[in-house]
Structure formats: C-alpha cells, structure tokens
Description:
The protein has helices at 7-21, 30-33, 44-53, 68-78, 99-108, 155-164, and strands at 27-28, 59-62, 81-82, 90-93, 122-126, 136-139, 147-148, 173-177, 182-186, 191-194. It is α/β, with parallel strands linked by helices. The longest helix has 15 residues, at 7-21.
Amino acid sequence: MAIDRIHDLQQVYRKIVHSMSRPGTISTIKQQTKNVDVDFGCTDALILSAMALLDAEVTFHVIAKNRTDLIGKISEYTSARFASVQEADFIIVLKEDKEIDILEAMIQCKIGNLIDPHQSATWIIESGNLVNEGPLQLTGPGIRTEAHLQTGQSNQFWQTRDSRIKEYPMGIDLIFADKAAQIACIPRSVSAIPMEVK
C-alpha cells in the first residue's frame, strides 16, 4: 500500500478532528485517497478514516455479513481486533448493509457510562454523497446557529441515533465517508433532526 502512515494518515486524522469539532462541516481527503492502491471493497475515504483511528488498542465490528475479507484487511493494516457489536469501539457500516441490521446494531452498541462516557462506539459510515443541504438540521456545540447535512440516512436512522444520545455525555459519535472522498462528523453532543420538506 502506498499510503504514508505518518503523513497521509495524520492528515486524515486532522480532517476528522476538524469535522468533529465543527459538526456538519464537509472535509475532503481526496489527495490522501489517491495513494490507496488496495481494493478494500468499500470507499477509500471510509478505509482511510478507519486506518487513521484504529490501532492495536481498540476493537471494531463490521456490520456487513460475509465480509471476512474486509475484516481481515482492517486487522492487517491497523492491528485492531474484531469484536461483537456490543463490545466494539468502532462500528463499520457499508452502503450494502440493510437498514434493519444497522438499526439493530445501533441499539446494541455501547454508549459508555457516566463515569467513562468515552467508552462508547464511534461509527464510521459509508454514506451517500455528502452535501450541506437537505432536511437534516444540526444544532449544538461547534455550530453557530444551525447547519444542514445530507448523508442518505433515513428518518428512522436518526430517530434511533437520537435514542442513544439522550443520556449525554453517554452516546455515540458518527463519521460519514462518501465515494467522493469527503467526510463529515456528527458527535453525540449535536442534535440531528430531519425536518419535513415543505
């Protein structure tokens, strides 16, 4: 793999931190994805996000069934260990995943506890094209008034996510990655409400 583990992955990590601190902000990692020369069977932005965040100290879960190839490659390149959805530090969601499986995983994943809220799952999601428009309204820390983001997720997805962040600071953080090498983040502190289109 031609990815520079120091330079490229540090740049990806910085973009994730930037987008996490400014929820709804779309960052591009197109330059870094040009260096991916292995087919992981998912978007390059998703795999680079995983490589920037995962290491031997954490665990991950891939929702997609029969993707032992992807599980093996993620373990090989990050040294992270595969775990059940209830135990995983990171949850990987692919475009091929059925919504029923995604929602079930979201209900089961860990959200931390009041003493250690950081012991929760971070989701890395292969999304539709990310754009700063659409019915999803974001409000909260890091957003001046409100922001809009289109990720391709259904209202039921956002309702289920809302049920997992009600006991803040417990909750889950979301990282979206699309095929155009863009990423956007929605931390647990931010409200994400699908508004009705008039």
